[in-house]
From TrEMBL:
Keywords: Hydrolase. It comes from Rhodocollybia butyracea. Residues 49-340 form the AB hydrolase-1 domain. The keyword Cytoplasm does not apply. GO terms for molecular function: hydrolase activity. It comes from the Eukaryota. InterPro entries: AB_hydrolase_1, AB_hydrolase_fold. This is Alpha/beta hydrolase fold-1.
Amino acid sequence: MWGWRKDFEDAGRARGKFDYYERRLWLVINRYVRKDLAESPHKTKGLTLLFGHATGVNKEAWEPTIMSLLKSRAGQDVEEIWVWDSVDSGDSALLNAGRLNQLSDWYDTARDIAHFLFHYMPSGVVSDGLPVHLPRIPVAEFNSRINRGFSERKIVAISHSFSGAAVGRVCSSYPQLFTAMVFIDPAMIKHDLPVLKPSLNHMAQGAFAREGIWKSRDEALASLQKSLFYGVWHPDARKLYVECAMYPTEWGTIKLKMHPVWEALSYTNGKEPSGDMYERLPSLDGKIYIKWIMPDPKTGGGLGGNEASKLLVKRRPGRTSNVNILGAGHMIPQEKPKEVGE
């Protein structure tokens, strides 16, 4: 797949242009909002959280972390939460079946996030329900966001793995949109780090080999419990994965919403964005607070290894802090949702 992508990019450079992908794709986003906003308004703007998942994981996998967060003292400042499925994941993948681009880039997700924030996120937070299909905001509001960001929101983006690179890229271009970022072992690895390509290859091969169809959800859950990868997940996260990352087929079986091939392609499409975002980190706006949540050093310390992770969390100086979650590997939100939320 590396050679396939290189041939495609070389052909585009030879022509002097790249082909545009013009098929319409959909994003499915979960929204969680407080019902008591009118009865107990904040004296200042409350927080709007935007969650981004790892490759191969769907939006609902964040719910155990969200529950832990909302029970904490810090959670009282949260007014609204948005959690998206990227175009090839979860419910978005079902809507986009047959229209996905094999050579998509992680920065396509960055574009989608920016597009949502600029054109579709409502101006203010209300407890009422919203339309299933969000309408585009007025042009005047779009122009205001381009120049000054949100007037009625404080956006905190919480991203894990590949979505860390995507969200970071949006922040690099449009820092006015964000108040803070939480990077959870993000896929930001130096271009020339020897482990980058082998790590992506290993994850792609694992995705290709992954079982993607079962006779029932009970069989799927039993299989995941025995897996070296899923077996260390928190039981709530594993159950939500079976419930929400899979769907019943017309043949009576249960199947992953994100096809293992698309998961593998996502890994092989990530080398350039991962390295590029690593280089961009020092230039992220110093006004934005950054929290780094990293794995336990005893489990490897992060995607790039212990030493690379120590350097990563220091690349953007200023308003930052970092923490390692005891006993956690790369899939921190799924393995330790309570600790992440707290």
